[in-house]
Amino acid sequence: MKATSVNKVFPGPGGFTLLEIIIALTLVAILVSASLPYLFDSFAASAGDRAMESITTMAQEARRQAIESGESRHLTVSSSGLDGESLPAGWALEIKGLNDSKLHPPARDQVWEFSSEGVCQPLSLRLINGDRKIITTFDALTAQPVHDEE
Predict the structure, then answer these.
(1) Phi/psi at 99 (5° precision)
(2) Which residue in 38, 90, 137, 147 has a CA-CA distance of 20 to 30 Å to 97?
(3) Does a structural domain hold residue 81?
(4) Would you place residue 6 in the very low, low, confident or very high pLDDT band (cuts 50, 70, 90)?
């Protein structure tokens, strides 16, 4: 009987050459660099969505406080945010009130009123970041968003 070795040596070259590794890494780098703009756009869009959700929450909270206290409440609106809460970097706010014909930057010290009965001024808000726009119209009776458009 002939003893055979457990570790067989395969004939021919083994592993990858340096050129093959460089080509594979170059292809991976090209794919990653092509996908980065989409990834950053996704982050920017989600920041705008979170900002609009925050504004909606603030409006509902102001309405709730006005009803509970029996006194009117207001939120200060500026192009950089609402009631001292700043928008994410690169985003700006525009508004359209009941008597406005189009969306425009808020006037200095402009307020959004909520009466003690919970009725608020009807208002449309638009968040803008480059070509990305989020528009929400708030119902005067409930301060709930009634129309979203992108």
Answers:
(1) -95, 5
(2) 90
(3) yes
(4) low
